[in-house]
Automatic annotation (TrEMBL):
The lineage of its organism: Eukaryota, Sar, Alveolata, Perkinsozoa, Perkinsea. This is UDP-N-acetylglucosamine--dolichyl-phosphate N-acetylglucosaminephosphotransferase. Its cofactor is Mg(2+). The gene is DPAGT1_3. Keywords: Endoplasmic reticulum, Glycosyltransferase, Magnesium, Membrane, Metal-binding, Transferase, Transmembrane, Transmembrane helix. Belongs to the glycosyltransferase 4 family. UDP-N-acetylglucosamine--dolichyl-phosphate N-acetylglucosaminephosphotransferase that operates in the biosynthetic pathway of dolichol-linked oligosaccharides, the glycan precursors employed in protein asparagine (N)-glycosylation. The assembly of dolichol-linked oligosaccharides begins on the cytosolic side of the endoplasmic reticulum membrane and finishes in its lumen. The sequential addition of sugars to dolichol pyrophosphate produces dolichol-linked oligosaccharides containing fourteen sugars, including two GlcNAcs, nine mannoses and three glucoses. It comes from the Eukaryota. Its EC number is 2.7.8.15. The chain crosses the membrane at residues 12-38, 59-79, 91-114. It is found in: Endoplasmic reticulum membrane. One of its GO terms (molecular function) is UDP-N-acetylglucosamine-dolichyl-phosphate N-acetylglucosaminephosphotransferase activity.
Amino acid sequence: ALRWDYLVRVRPYMIGINGLEVGQSMVLALSLILNDLLQLYRHAQQAGTWPPYESHLMSLYLLLPFVGASFPLMVANMYPAVAFVGDTYCYLAGMTLAASGILGQCSKTTLLFFGPQIF
């Protein structure tokens, strides 16, 4: 639980470079969406029910609106920036990405994707 809290709280320290926060959040979200789609496709051929199917769908339900709302913000936040991202978006992005990783039952994969942000 402590590592997820760290991943949420480290995002506001990236403020200062135009487009960095939103761009990194978009890359992480698109990577998680691709992971969820690959997992759903891989297990679509199985007969019967697959328990993590609904978990990956829940992760997609969180990430798709997040990407849709973040793209216009990313365009407005590129140099010369028209919009200021601030702490509110950074906390929203951290919580959305962490929650989608936990709910999608791919916490190890999410931590792997967060690796460049930690260092």
